Structures are given as C-alpha cells and as structure tokens.
Amino acid sequence: xxxxLLVALVLALSVLAYRLGQRRAHALAVRxxxxxxxxxxxxxxxxxxxxxxxxxxxxxxxxxxxxxxxxTSLALDTVTSQRPDLGPDQMNLxxxxxxxxVAGHTGSREIDPLLQAAADRYTALAQVSRLALAxxxxxxxxxxxxxxxxxxxxxxxxxxxxxxxxxxxxxxxSTFAVxxxxxxxxxxxxxxxxxFQKVPITEFLFGLNWSPQMAIRADQVGSSGSFxxxxxxxxxxxxxxxxxxxxxxxGLMSAIYLSEYAGSKTRAVVKPLLEILAGVPTVVYGFFAxxxxxxxxxxxxxxxxxxxxxxxxxxxxxxxxxxxxPFVSSLSDDVxxxxxxxxxxxxxxxxxxxxxxxxxxxxxxxxxxIVGSILLAVSRAIGETMIVVMAxxxxxxxxxxxxxxxxxVTVQIVTLLVGDQEFDSPKTLAAFALGMLLFLVTLALNVxxxxxxxxxxxxxx
Length: 461
What we know:
Blueprint: H1 3-30, H2 41-75, H3 77-82, H4 88-103, H5 113-151, H6 158-198, H7 201-206, E1 210-211, E2 226-227, H8 230-261, H9 264-279, H10 282-303, H11 313-337, H12 341-349, H13 354-365, H14 367-383, H15 386-391, H16 409-416, H17 426-460
Antiparallel strand pairs: 1-2
C-alpha cells in the first residue's frame, strides 16, 4: 500500500471518528440525565478525529524518514559481509548503485549478481514494511478512536483538550519556522565566513570592481579575481529605486481611487484586472522588457543624442515597477478600506472635502499598512532576477546612469551558482556572501519600517 493511499485511509477514519463522536455527544445531550455537556458536540468529534489521525500520521511520517536507511542497511548486509574491506566512498557508491537498481535505472552496463540480490531483497523488505506499516497505522488509528469514543461523557472537557492540541500544533509550527530561519541564516553565515577567510571583508564591502571569475592556473588572466560588491549593490538599489518610483505612485493612486472614488461595479471590474498583473510570470515581463521596452528606450535616447545601452537599468526598472503595482495597490486598498467610516464622517462634519479627508485623515490612519505594502514591494524588487537578467544584463558597472547596463545581487548569485562549482572556491563562496549582504539589507529595511510604523501609531492611537 502506497503512503498516499494510507494517509487517505487514515484521514477517512478520522472523518468517521468525528461523525461518531459528534453523534455520541448529541445522544448524551438528548438523554434526560440531568447533566449538560461541558463542550459542544463538535468538540467531541474533533477530539475523536485528532486521536484517530495524529498517532497514525506520526507513525507514517516516522516510517518515511527511517525506512530508507534501515532497508538499505538490511539489504546490503550480505554484500558487506562478503566485502568487509569497503571504504566510506565505496560504500556510498554501493548505496547509490543499489538505489538505481531498485528504481530500475540499470542502463546497459553489467550488473553485479551480489548487488542484484541485494536489490531484490530490498524490494521484498520494502513490500513487507509497507504492509506492516499499513496494519500498524490503521490499527493504532482504530484503537485510539475506539478508546476516545468510549470516554465521551457529559463531563468530558473536550473543548479544552482540542484547544490545547491546537495550541501545541501552532507552537510546533512556529518553532519549526523559527528553526528553519535559523538554519538558513546559519548556513549562509558559515559559508560567508569561509569566503571572508579567503577575501578580506573590506575588499568585499568597499571594493569598486566586481569580477569573480577565477582562473584554473595562476598564470592565466584574471586568476586573482575582484570581489568588490559596491557595483552590484549600486545596480540593485538603482533598479529598485526606478521600480519603486513607478510602483508606489501608480499603486497608491489606484488604491485611493478604488477605495474612495470608484463605484461598486467599477471596483468589481478594475481591481481583478489590475491584480492580473501579479499573476503574469516574470519571464513574460522579461521578454517584454527585452523585446519592447529596451529597444524603445534606446531609440528614444538616440533621437535625443543620448548613448543608451541595449540592456539598461531603466528598462528593467520600469517593467519591474509595472509588475509590482498590484502588490502596492491591493494591500493599500485593503488597508484604506479598513479605516473606520466614523473618521471620514467626522471629517465631513467639520466641512472637509473628500480630497482633504483622504489626505489629512484616511491616509495618515492607514499609514502603517501602506508602509507595509511598500516594504513588501521593495523586497519584491530587490529579489527579482529574471527581468534583470533579460533587460539589464550581467555587467557589474559602477554607475548611477540608468541608461547603462547594470546588474543586481540576485542575478550575480544565480550566475555564480550555475553549473558544476567547487564550494572551496572564492567564486562560489561569493554567492553566499552576497546572500548574507542581501539579508542584512532586507533586515535593515524591516527595522526602518517598524520604526516608522511604531512612531506613527504612538501619534495617532
């Protein structure tokens, strides 16, 4: 039995346990026992469903993690007993070949009979383990549901237990998210430290030349490499600033129109059309920037006697700004609609016009949410890669001229990690240093936004 089918059966049993628990609680409530139910029947059903599903799902998940190593060890016992001189590398290669045989990836090479016997044993053990898992999980689910259904009585605090279980689940999810974040930061930080052991941190932070290409031999051109991140950061901020100069005015004005001026019919049509922009793949925006916007900017620049590169930061920033408009518009619209109508009515009662009410009352009251939407848009702009690759290029030029080709941090990270790389090389480790730098920049933006929001709330609340 496949794990997917087994999970479906466990969930079906939990649904059945929910219905039985609910019905039993209803029956107890109807009986003239003189005692009222402590919790609603739905909580009794949820308690039965949780006890039915959670232990069985834990067993299935544990089996998914432990089955591979255990079955591989049991299947290779005969091979290791006859070849006791296998080293760690040879053992890893043997495990890989065993998995390929089990998966059916044999190719045209000759198969070792001993390894084929191990693969056959692995397959047989996997079938037995799946049957044993199905029997164990379904038995545990049924027994747990039966025990809980037998404990249902009017004094059972089912609601407290269900809420406690939900609280534990939420705590585990939040803890898992925190540990994932710590793991990501720690992994990037560890590789960044390795990079800074090879390249001075002052050169990385203040260097004006970015050329991370490392030659194979020391006598080749460019064997030393240059790892100054200033041109990459400059390109990132330049393109993000252009994008935000497009997205913030258009997005904010669109939100104000939709929430304060547009009728219900107009809003029902315009808002979905505007949010379609958020669903367009970034590669489509990249094609549009490379094939339409960039040539148009180049032709306009030539008509005014300006030198415009075929790939420019202006083209990438303009198209990226159009892509980000829905992020600012949708979130700002929701925040503006959440402003209490009483504030508007009070402003109108004092003789203010609609535009004055929006400018002096609605927008200040909605400022925390608007700042949050702008922050989200900035993060989206800084993290964009495809549009920059196709419209702005890969050249790390230290310039503030938007008509020249520039690059961003994310583009360089992708470029450095493409293909087969040696993770002891400064060229590859530079990607992790750029990632850590980007993380610190984003963190600084978050801190600034929180400061602005808290200062504003202290003034208006």
